[in-house]
Design a protein that fits this description.
The chain is mainly alpha-helical. The chain contains 5 helices and no strands.
């Protein structure tokens, strides 16, 4: 069963290996998350366009937006894993400090976004 929380915990685990990251289970979860969030963002951009311009975005603009968001979000998961490994190394391999830092850092950026 897929959950965003499980995906977050997997991709913020400093012990996650590259082979585990590219396993079918994790890649499928990343793909589901990327598609879900892409749909939400595209709907939001179209709503904003409709409210301020009186029309939704053209189909070619939507397609470019979809492709860009999918690539950016997929690379974002790779960046998240790399960042967690760097934090883990900076804390000298302390799992508790790494988890505390990542949770605060992630939640701060989510609410800023």
């Amino acid at each position: 069963m897929f959950s965003f929380q499980d995906l977050y915990l997997q991709t913020t685990n400093p012990h996650l290996t590259v082979s585990q990251l590219f396993s079918a289970k994790v890649l499928l979860a990343i793909l589901i998350s990327d598609i879900f969030h892409t749909v939400l963002y595209v709907l939001f951009f179209n709503l904003v366009s409709y409210v301020f311009l009186g029309r939704i975005l053209e189909s070619d603009v939507n397609m470019r937006l979809i492709m860009a968001l999918l690539v950016i979000m997929f690379l974002g998961y790779m960046g998240r894993v790399w960042h967690v490994k760097q934090v883990y190394a900076a804390y000298g391999g302390d799992d508790a400090k790494t988890r505390a830092f990542v949770d605060v850092h992630y939640n701060s950026w989510v609410f800023l976004g």
